[in-house]
Amino acid sequence: MNKTLLLPTLMASALIAPMTHASPVLLAIGTLTQSAAGPDADLSGLTAPMENGVRGDLLGGIGSGLAYAGGNTFIATPDRGPNATVYNPLVDNTSSYIDRFQTIGMGLATNPNYVAGSNQPYLLNPTLNATTLMWSATALNYGDGSLGTGSGYTLGSGVPSQNSPGVNYFTGRSDNFVGTGSTNAANARFDPEAVRVSRDGRSLFVSDEYGPYVYQFDRATGERIRTFAVPGNLAVTTLGPTTAAEDDPNNSSGRVANKGMEGLAITPDGKTLVGIVQAAALQDKNKYLRIVTFDIASGQATHEYAYQLTTGSGVSDLVAVNDHEFLVDERDGKGLGDGSAAVIKQVFKIDITGATDVMNEPVLSNLTMVGKTAVAKSALPVVDLVTLLNAAGIASTDIPAKIEGLAFGPDLVFDATDYHTLFIANDNDFLPTEAGPNQFYVVGIPFSDLPGYQEQLVPAAPTLWLIGAGLLGLGRGVRGGLRRRGGKGQA
């Protein structure tokens, strides 16, 4: 690997010393292609077709966001739904896909047929255990379909037929908003990206690209229970139903359309959310992305920091190592689903300690960052997924283009080495034929590579306690086994 190519081009970003210990290992690969409802179907029961003719229960896009929920349970958030079928470009072909989160059991079992260099030491068989729709008890703003008038396209109302008094569902359709100006949490359009579980295990925090927003949902019911105040410098002035309508020249500041609040982490003590946009805001330059911290108790944004891309075209997720260090998924858009070969799917470690608060900085650029410090960032990636998968015999053309979700899972011991497990998921855009199935890669990161690691203790919600419990308590086998995290770094 050419180390020079991985160094930041600007000196505003400090460097964290490169890793010098045991290397990360690929422990398992799993796919999720069906549920009890059948092939390519989730458990929503929404079998009727949407405006674009696609079934409302299509199982896809799961890797947009991924969170650990204790035991063998993970939460995954598909994004705004299938929009690859051309039926109305005036809404970017988005549909009334009801936003949802999926509860998945993902226990690791040792592979009795493991042969070093030919397969993985663990087996991963993801199981979909629940699908929960996301809704608001208060009224939401939906499109009326009038955007198609005189255009040769027709479009009906964006109000879901499943709505009932006091239950108003969020959907991915891009015209589900009213007015212009600052963000409006009463708008029904919602493009979920990242998800994290609250400290008590009873609620979820979900980031959104449309607003951008950060919402909190009741984990058992799917009801939105709170909205976090995102800094105004990430909001656009002119809202629109298409990417072109919301980007330059219609807006000169705020998040880039479809590249808003992408990643979300929660600190191990459960007190702080940390969000990151996928790409530099319209007013910012030179690959500087904004990281925003939120105080969970008050719901207020507290700080903004500058993050500088290394080689990727954007960031998809971040997960907390402790209260000041995080792993960041930086990627390009190449690979399976793009018709090309994957190049950049890298996870860097960053540290916000000592970074300059840029919340009141109108523009981030070479000039404005003089005398300021961006977040410190490892010179080399902690995980280079393309390298790991290539070594496992997987061609770069078969590596998903959209590697997006990150979540730490249970620690384990393999081959006499302690590892933190990092679950990595893809967003297949609901196109399993073109972009591959819903895929999960489990990477072991040596304890020595993350010396400041602190576990986020998440109790399973009572009603979900037994989900996936069948794979708990796995014994050792082959050359390793799962183990309970103990004592070290617990909050």
TrEMBL record:
InterPro entries (UniProt xref): Phytase-like_dom (IPR027372), WD40/YVTN_repeat-like_dom_sf (IPR015943)
Residue ranges constituting the Phytase-like domain according to the UniProt record: 59-430
Entry keyword annotation includes Hydrolase: no
Keywords: Plasmid, Pyruvate, Signal
Gene3D superfamilies: YVTN repeat-like/Quinoprotein amine dehydrogenase
Cleavable signal peptide: 1-22
UniProt-listed PANTHER family: BLR7070 PROTEIN (PTHR37957), PHYTASE-LIKE DOMAIN-CONTAINING PROTEIN (PTHR37957:SF1)
Protein name as annotated: Pyruvate-binding protein
